[in-house]
Amino acid sequence: MRPVKATLLLFALLLLFVLKISAQSCDGSLGDPVIKQDFGSGANPGPPLAAGVTNMTYTSANSPIDGQYTIANSLTAANNIAATTWWDVPSDHTGNPNGYMMIVNASRKPGIFFKQAANGLCPNTTYYFSAYILNLTLPNTITTNFTHPDITFSVENTVGNVRVTDSTGSIPVSQKGPQWVRYGIFFTTPAGVTDVVVVMTNNAPGGYGNDFILDDITFRACGPVITEGFSTVSGSKNMSLCEGANTTVSLNTRVVGNGTLFYQWQSNMSGGGWVDMPGATSNNASVPFVNAKPGQYQYRLGVSNGSAISVAACRVYSQPLTVYVNPVPVVPVIAAQTLCQGGQLQLTASGGASYIWTGPGIPSSTQNPLVINNVTPANSGTYTVVAISDSGCTSAPVTTKVTVLPKIVPVVSSDVPVCAGESASLSASGGTHYQWSPSTGLDNDTIANPTVTPLTTTVYKVSISNGACVDSSKTVTVTVYQNPVANAGNPIFLYEGQSTILQGSLKGDNITSHYWTPVTFLSDPTSLTPVATPTDNITYTLTAASSTCGTSTSSVFLRVYKKVTIPNTFSPNGDGINDLWNIDALITYPDARIQVFDRYGQSVYQSTGYSKPWDGTFGGKPVAARTYYYIIDLKDGQPKLTGWVLIVR
Question: Could you tell me if 140 and 198 lie in one domain?
Fold first, then answer.
């Protein structure tokens, strides 16, 4: 049960304090906490409370026993020895997974488990002392001996005398999971009172039950009802502007309260903390924005019931009015495009939530990417995009250039014939860039008019482009005709009176005729293999004629060896008759080797070739008249000629 009546009686007996305990709840606005104990945040376990805050014993274990407490950011089956009787509590009451809370296993007798001074208070000001409490016990474990948590909230003077007190009563277990509930009392400071002590006391005995968690213990001013809004008190509490905006924002409030009220507007720029706005001391204010910078700008009205508006602990505050200055989207540069007629144009912008495109023939389009199929040169020009953010802010226009080139109309030279080793010119037109393939035989494969000297018939393909359009459909065939090649064969050697067959042959394309010259001693000068019966050395020439690549000639030499007749007697006596050893036809063997020996094997004559017949001398003197022996090597591959010759005088 709540001990409110007993507390009032106690106060009546305390003559040292002339206080009026307010039984009213705070229906107005709250100030910033004079006391705020949220136990911090971090990894388990948290640190113990400062000395004097509690009379319980700290433990680093996650499951304290009777009379102990711990500071932790969670209480789960994995680290909870009382998992069969306690709820799993994964985080503090705000949902912060790292936020600490105070886990209490109450003592077997009542006692203080939280105590803290609140200094610098203002007189005639109502304050609200509260905390969030969670009953840890699982509902299915309760028996008739179970004790529910029962906590008294008290405000004392600095020497321990109670000024106001109230109890939570029996805090029930939750049937649907761990449940945080806020409990508290209200206290109005008398004149001259600026410092008090707030106390939380465990009323129920420990043992079985009476296990709970505390979080966010606060002591803060409670004041008039404040209604706030932009432009009017019923207006929105949030406003959006765009970066660069120039406007004035009207802050309006209606304050319903008793007594003389004083005002002070505060601002909080992008989370930098609340600061007083100079001169903003009425219930309405105007805030100019000049070339607004992105960020979150908050404004709230502070109100006090006395002249101490300059003291933060005396104020209560309206709910914040928030101006969001949203950045203007920035669209990155969009690269210019050059594409071919009939292709697909795709322009993509980024940096915004939506986009508006304009361009040649497109007054407005929200498509992104902007896609235009089967483009024509009429689609060439400047395209502009504007990006719009989620908050409705519009970017500066961004432009890009699009060029659509007409399709290639390819023109190439006709197929061309060439003779082997000769060159021809190819030609192409219709574009600005050319690429011929294969490059074999070309003097330059990247120009419109290359010179080609192929070894064999080749089909050349040309790719024609103008930077975006490409046509690779055209080819030129260069047919290579092989030049006529006449071959008269190898030299021929024969003896006078013999015949031979000439071995002529031809190669090449489109040969229309062939013949031998001279026609002397030939059986058929138009045959490649005529029969030749020459009487003397002779050279025959074979000529081949092509209808496309001219003529070719080749010659063959026929060596006709004369019959050698060797006389066996001559008389070198100077009478002018038979003075020399004349050997018929030997002069036709210029490489012949002639040697003559006496009967003792002594050489008396030798000669290479026989341009001058032997005159029967040796060393310039006549040799003796007798028989001599000769060896003649004609050097024609035939056996050597041997015999004797008689010199007579």
Answer: yes
